[in-house]
Amino acid sequence: MTVAVLDGGSYYHHDVIYGDRFRHRFDRAIYAPDLVEDDLEGVSALIVADRISPTVLRAKRRIFHRYLAGGGTLIVLGENQAQTWAPGVKWTFVPTNFWWWLDRGTDPGHRVPGLDHEIFQHVTSKDVIWHFHGLLHPPAGAIPLVTIAPEAGGGPDGSILYDHPGIASGKGRMIVTTLDPFYHTGSYFMPAAARFLNGLLDWTDATFRAR
Amino acid sequence: MIDALLLDCEQTEGGVDILMKRPDLGSRIDVLPLYELERAELRRYRGLLLGLHVDQRYLATRRNQIDSYLAGGGTIVFCGHMATPFLPDVSTYRPIANYGVADLAVKRISAHPVWEGVDTADLTFRRGVSGFYGRGSHEPPGGAQVIHGLGADLHPVDFEHRPAGGGRLLVHAGADLWGYLDSETSAARMAPQLLDWLRVPFHGEKS
């Protein structure tokens, strides 16, 4: 079982993917502009690191769709404009509030309806509470895992993490989030992002590599 | 000549958006998608602005173009952490291990036109929080002018350098300097002063 990661070539991708802290978490790293179909042979999960050039990702659409149709799992992290290339993704912009935590006692609006989901055996609900980049609107069949409450501006279905099993004729699966942990972890800033990434990779280790 | 070419990495809420809200500055800058660099006529620009989100693996493949731009008297401003070296004499980023707040204090080592009138306290803190400006450094090449250092060890977070092959480099080991433009402090002075600095002829520039 193989976990692969897409590398966008930015310094934070380099630090997380090839640095001492996380490199043992990935079996295969693929530089996104070079991605070809054969790279995904035998890959059980492909992590699309956050903040890869959306132009590059759009150019690889056919490969992603084919991978999903073949039963692959795509884990799509934030700021990738996934709504322009990944199936079923709907996203709306909301200005990022980087400063919510300066007002003690402020509720940033995060809710975790998916607490019994397997991801939360590895990620603590506290580690998903940090600024997020826009809202996802999970399509039919997707399971919202972290939502933003309507009173905090999340609207009826605003979500920042969901699991969409059974896409591409039932074979593929997508995990989608608006969180961008590679950027913050590789920038040595924001410990919550590093804890989230660590938990997420504990989950990919347990689910896609251990068998 | 146009003051600067900025290579865009299509990030929402990035430095490009902030610059382009201001026609006085936006009128002095061309913006081109990063991967179109190979088709850009760099000699039309005094400066090339490279921000933190650039695909450094791609830029490393453009080394000949970068070197000839510098040899022709161009200035490159790089903000970010060097991981895949693509500029002459600039080696990889060194994070400050287990930094504390005191390690992140910005101290001025030498005056520079880009930072004229910028209070280092406005670089050290944003809304009372430190660490945005820098959390590490690049080794300054021999002869470089170090502008700011971080903490007691003065980790060189900013320097200007004249590579032997010609041109100028301004290297900031942190987020885009032009991203401070919407700040309500003296830090907002950096972006316009950067464009003004690019306009001033310098020794070694091709006329």
Largest sheet of chain B: 8 strands, mixed
* Shape summary of chain A: globular
CATH top level class name of chain A: Alpha Beta
Strand order in the largest sheet of chain B: 2-1-3-4-12-11-10-6
Number of strand segments of chain B: 12
Ranges of chain A where pLDDT stays below 50 over 5 or more residues in a row are: none
Which value, in Å, is the CA radius of gyration of chain B? 16 Å
Mean pLDDT figure of chain A: 94
H and E order of chain B:
EHHEEHHEEEHEEEEEEH
Helix amount of chain B: 10-25%
The CATH homologous superfamily of chain A is termed Class I glutamine amidotransferase (GATase) domain
* Count of all domains of chain B: 1
Q: What's the count of strands of chain A?
A: 10
Mean residue pLDDT of chain B: 95
Structural class by sheet pairing and helices of chain B: alpha/beta
Organism (chain A): Microvirga brassicacearum
InterPro entries (chain A): Class_I_gatase-like
Protein name (chain A): Glutamine amidotransferase domain-containing protein
Protein name (chain B): Phosphate starvation-inducible protein PhoH
Would you mind describing this structure in some detail?
The complex is a heterodimer of chains A (211) and B (207). In chain A, strand 1 (2-7), helix 1 (11-18) and strand 2 (28-31) form a beta-alpha-beta unit. Chain A is built from five helices and ten strands; from the N terminus they run E-H-E-E-H-H-E-E-E-E-E-E-E-H-H. Chain A has helices spanning 11-18, 54-59, 61-69, 181-186, 191-209; strands at residues 2-7, 28-31, 43-48, 73-76, 91-92, 110-111, 135-136, 143-148, 159-167, 172-177. By secondary structure, chain A is an alpha/beta fold. Chain A has an eight-stranded mixed sheet. A two-stranded antiparallel sheet of chain A has the order 5-7. Chain A has one domain: Class I glutamine amidotransferase (GATase) domain (Rossmann fold, 3-Layer(aba) Sandwich). Chain B has one domain (2-199): 3-Layer(aba) Sandwich (Rossmann fold), CATH 3.40.50. Chain B contains six helices and twelve strands. In chain B, a hairpin with a 2-residue loop joins strand 7 (125-126) and strand 8. Chain B is globular and about 45 Å long. The longest helix of chain B has 10 residues, at 190-199. The model of chain B has no long low-confidence stretch (mean pLDDT 95). In chain B, the strands form three sheets. In chain B, strands 2-1-3-4-12-11-10-6 form an eight-stranded mixed sheet. Chain A binds chain B through residues 7-12, 14-15, 31, 33, 51, 53-56, 79, 81, 93, 95-96, 99, 102, 133-134, 187-189, and chain B through 9-13, 33-35, 52-58, 80-84, 93, 95, 99, 127-129, 131, 135-136. Chain B: It comes from Microvirga brassicacearum.
